[in-house]
Structures are given as C-alpha cells and as structure tokens.
Amino acid sequence: MNLYEHTIIARQDASQSDIKQLIEKYSKIISKNEGEIIKTENWGLLNLSYLIKKNKKGSYIHFKIKCDGKVINELEKNESIDKKLLRYLTVRVKKFDLKNDYFNKKEVSEK
After folding, report:
1. 88 CB-side CA count, 13 A
2. Contacts (Cβ under 8 Å, ≥6 apart) of 29
3. Are the C-beta atoms of residues 6 and 63 closer than 8 Å to each other?
4. 76: nearest Cα among 33, 12, 21, 20
5. pLDDT, tens digit, for every residue of 26-36?
6. What percent of the chain has pLDDT over 70?
7. What is the SS3 assignment for 74?
8. Dihedral sign, Cα of residue 25, residue 31, residue 35, residue 41
9. What would the pLDDT profile of 54-84 be if each residue is shown by its tens digit?
C-alpha cells in the first residue's frame, strides 16, 4: 500500500452541503476500491493564484489516503468529469504529517 496526499479544488460557489457531498462521494470511491482514508481536511475558501474557469477562489479539500495506484486512477477518472471541481492533484509521500494543521487559523499569543 502506498501513501498519497490528494487535494481537490471545488468551485467558489459551492455551498457547505455541496462540499460535504463531494467529501462523501470521493470517500465512498476510496473505500469501495479497498483504500483507507487516514485524514480528511477541509481547508475552506482560498484565493487562487490565477483565474481557473473564471473563478478567483476555490474551496480546497485535502485527503490523506493509504491505497494502491488503481484507487487513484479511479478517483481521477471521476474527478475529471465532475463539473463542480476546478482542479485536483495527487502526490505520493513517504509518510504523513499528522501533527500540523497548516490551514487552521492559529491564535497569536502575546508575551
């Protein structure tokens, strides 16, 4: 089994219920193909570096997945035809960083 970090960017006009449906849809695809989701993160609405299909912002969803390559092929096949998504990216990693939440807002403590 390989370790993957998989990020999808949904359209900026996607509601919270649409985001939940996307997470459930792709989680089912991973589970159905004998993959295991280690962690799912909803990074929220972030600015894009450039316009993608006339969108300035996108809702980012990040999965940490333990699976075989066939699961990734199935995921990307479904994502390429999904009209709610702008982009997707899969990166194979050696180990997961489960300690840090990079996109959660941290409170600044004053000394």
Report:
1. 22
2. 71, 74, 75, 78
3. yes
4. 33
5. 999 999 999 89
6. 91
7. helix
8. positive
9. 999 999 999 999 999 899 999 999 999 999 9
Residues 6+ away with beta carbon under 8 Å from 9: 48, 52, 58, 59, 60, 61, 85, 86, 87, 88
Relative orientation angle of helices 16-32 and 69-80, to the nearest 10 degrees: 140
- Reference 66, options 34, 23, 41, 29; nearest CA is 34
pLDDT at 7 over 70: yes
pTM for the whole thing? 0.84
Are 19 and 59 within 8 A, CB to CB? yes
Report whether CATH 3.40.50.2000 matches the domain 2-93. Answer: no
Strand partners, 88: 8
Domain assignments of the chain as residue spans, ordered by start: 2-93
